[in-house]
Write a structure and sequence with these properties.
Rossmann fold; 214 residues; single chain; binds S-adenosylmethionine
Length: 214
């Protein structure tokens, strides 16, 4: 049984999918954020050899899958939203490997991928759904899971950050001290982490390895 939550419904709308990239990544600030996130992806993938099969969950409109393919990986994109997958296929000129699927119950066998990456999803998920997604990534990836979080408690800094940068405060918080426990409870060991841009953006990519037999 998978959980319903806003991020699962919201992106099912054609208009939201059609406007996704323009609404987030147009203009100088959007371009910079996209560039930083793609740089973060590549830092987190260091050590995974070119040619590896990588799950991009959720693929959205495909920006990370396209970056992975450009770096020599074989990206497979999965998303619960048909409209997002349609935009992703169009932007890839029909050359993308895409499938509809729910991150909480992935339609892949154990170890089907060498790595799985997850950008801009976990922050939207309530704890149970977030852990379901992590467990599924740990199951389908043999060597590496990359999970992006915004690991902070609600604080004055968060409010200033929201007001100055007009960034939405995440609905679901995980405190930094609780993260390793969360990873381990989902069968993942923390190897290292990378900040998106230290002191400016809170996003951090956690580079994890599936614990054998967990
Ligand atoms: C903010 S977008 C992020 C897309 C992409 N990772 C990126 O960084 O641009 C969130 C995506 O998560 C998808 N999504 C939400 N819940 C999901 C679930 N349980 N399984 C798979 N995809 C899901 C939505 O359909 C949407 O495409």
């Amino acid at each position: 049984m998978t959980d319903p939550y806003e991020a699962k419904r919201h992106y099912q709308q054609e208009a939201v999918a059609g406007d996704y990239d323009r609404a987030r990544f147009a203009g100088l600030r959007g371009w910079l954020v996209n560039w930083l996130e793609q740089r973060l992806l590549m830092k987190a993938m260091a050590g995974v050899p070119a040619g590896a099969k990588v799950l991009d969950l959720p693929v959205g409109t495909g920006r990370m899958a396209r970056r992975l393919n450009a770096a020599g990986y074989r990206a497979v994109g999965t998303d619960v939203s048909e409209p997002m997958l349609k935009v992703s296929a169009e932007l890839a000129g029909g050359r993308a490997d895409l499938a509809r699927g729910d991150g909480e119950a992935l339609p892949y066998r154990a170890g089907a991928f060498q790595a799985a990456v997850c950008f801009r999803l976990l922050v939207h998920l309530p704890e149970r759904a977030r852990k379901n997604v992590l467990r599924e990534m740990a199951r389908v990836a043999s060597d590496r899971v990359v999970a992006v979080y915004q690991p902070h408690r609600l604080s004055l800094w968060w409010l200033v950050y929201g007001l100055l940068l007009r960034r939405k405060l995440p609905l679901h918080f995980v405190a930094p001290g609780d993260l390793e426990r969360e990873f381990e409870s989902c069968g993942l060991r923390l190897l290292r982490s990378h900040a998106l841009l230290r002191g400016v953006f809170m996003e951090r990519a956690y580079v994890l390895e599936p614990i054998a037999g967990a």
